Amino acid sequence: MHMTCDVELGADILAANKRIAEDNAALLKKHNVRAYDFLGAIGSGKTLLIEKLADILHARGLKCAAIAGDVTGDDDYKRFKAHGMQVVNVNTGKECHLDAHMVDHAISHLDLENIDVLFIENVGNLICPADFPLGSEKQVTIVSVTEGDDMVRKHPILMGCSDIIVVNKMGLAEIMEIDPEILKKDAAAINPHVPVIFTDARKETGLNELLEAFGL
Amino acid sequence: MHEFSVISSIVDLVKQEMEKRPVILVKEVKLEVGELTFLAHGALEFGFTALVEKEPKIANDALNIIPVQAEVKCKNCDYEGPMKVKDSESMHIGVPIFKCPKCEGQIEVIKGKECTVVNLRMELED
Ligand SMILES: Nc1nc2c(ncn2[C@@H]2O[C@H](COP(=O)(O)OP(=O)(O)OP(=O)(O)O)[C@@H](O)[C@H]2O)c(=O)[nH]1
Ligand SMILES: [Mg+2]
Ligand SMILES: [Zn+2]
Ligand SMILES: [Zn+2]
Ligand SMILES: [Zn+2]
After folding, report:
1. Which residues of B touch A192 (CB under 8 A)?
2. B2-69+112-124 CATH fold
3. How many whole angstroms from B89 Cα to the centroid of ligand 2?
4. Mean pLDDT throughout B10-16?
5. Is this complex scored with an ipTM above 0.90?
6. Strand B71-74 vs strand B107-111: parallel, antiparallel, or unpaired?
7. Do A100 and A124 meet the contact criterion of CB atoms below 8 Å apart?
8. Is a pLDDT exceeding 80 seen at residue B108?
């Protein structure tokens, strides 16, 4: 007979990421940088919203920066750059999400003293980024009316854990024949404490309301 | 979607522990997965089996996943405990509701977002 032994570990595989996220948050706070991370399905309008918000904030005299997370390429990077933002491009390769370590590296390439607001665009993916907090002040989840009126109730845990839900492309709601109030009602049923903001990044509606929800 | 990288870290951890003692076989890797994570159990199991295929000292079916119920703390009253879950006919699982079951206040999640290797059961040389 061989001996059987039990080794108690208690090792949380996701804890390392959470620790780095806390360090990121502390570093950003030290430099008075307000950070917001945007996650949402591919093409929901994350980049365009950030571009438009940055324009408004720049006009108010605040300096914006962005971390562009994408599987490959630098399309979003170039779009942010064109708005006069400091930008770091992060290609995640095979990974379907940004993690706190990648953001830590990206932050080290930014001149934090010259940034008031940092936008972090996560990889277009509505599922897994939620397992990897990055150290931002608020997690903003973007859905758009073109994805259908069941997007919120199909992702209850993600929506429940979000700090702000944005319903974008409102100008297309009528064409899509969807009632955006359904998305709002579903969100309220899952988490009555999360604000739901209707925007249209093309028509530039709802943007000030969104900034207000950011506390900006 | 990132189950494979998570399970790789777990297998690495198991191998580290194996190096510390004269292991004949790892019989069980007990893993607690919080219900608020986005880790699909089936994908974890699949990844584990694929990774340990060439590891003669880790049993193929060693991974034992135990789901962990979420717990929350109310920011308004003194409630601390499980979330309210709404049963939904259209969905197979209950949907957790992110408000205090007692006073409907705002809550903070205190449990359910972890993926913890709690225990390894190994057969050792005498
Ligand atoms: N009509 C309309 N179009 C929009 C709106 N927001 C974004 N778009 C368009 O939708 C397309 C995708 O927008 P992006 O901002 O690139 O979306 P994204 O979420 O950053 O996409 P990925 O980074 O690829 O995941 C672009 O053609 C945008 O111009 C909106 O509010 N209304
Ligand atoms: Mg984009
Ligand atoms: Zn992922
Ligand atoms: Zn590094
Ligand atoms: Zn309460």
Report:
1. 99, 104
2. hypothetical protein PF0899 fold (3.30.2320)
3. 35
4. 96
5. no
6. antiparallel
7. no
8. yes
